[in-house]
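Minutes, project check-in
Item: structure for the 267-residue chain
Input as provided by the requester:
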Amino acid sequence: MWNVIDFARNGLVFIVIGLQLPAILDGMRPNNGLGPLNWPRLIAGGLLVSGIVIGLRFLWMFPGSRMAYFLRVHLQKQQVPLPNTRTLIVLSWSGMRGVLTLAAALSLPVFTNRGERFPHREAIIFLAFSVILVTLVGQGLTLPTLIRRLNVCESQEAQDEERLARKVLLKSALRELRSIDSGGDEIEAQAVDQLTRYYSQRLQGLGSSADTPDGAQIDRKSREVSARVRTAEREELARLRQESRFREATLRNLERELDLIDLRWEN
């Protein structure tokens, strides 16, 4: 719910700000040296400032990452890898500007202490608009393609560490299941046996997918089949919702379970 509110609020802010753009353009006409709106000059200025902003982020990210690495390794004694060039390029290209940039420009006073209009205020706000447009639309839409082209993903060390942690958890769960004494309760014994087979299969999948090509293919195929099954479940949920056979709260709970399964398979 908070994500929805935050998204709606950001959208509302940009709508309100966009409504101010005509007034800002009108304020740029009279005595600011631009005369009647010179669009080639305005567009060139917006592109120039946007290029400077993007270039400054590149200039800072590379030495800044080395500085952070030095401080963490030599002063804080942390064992962290040095970011590679491809990762730094992606981080440098991720400097999208938004509400905060425009809020900083809009915070400029309309009048100075002498009662005169703040010089070039409208032009500054227009340039802030330009930077937001170039970074959000230009960098934002091209960022996924850049990540795929550079093949930037989680490091192999992090993946191996997560796999090892999952193995430890699964082994502890299996130990606990084997220690359960059903005491002649057939239903509990069947439940324990079912969970034991489930956790054993997960543990076996972690080992095989990391060590053998066949295991990796099985893991990938399992993801594809699982996605097809969840798609069928969602289609059935949509049909049940149209028929109104169940309460909406019940259907939402089932849909939430599918969402959690999606997150598990994505991770």
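Outcome recorded: The radius of gyration is 28 Å.
No further action items on this chain.
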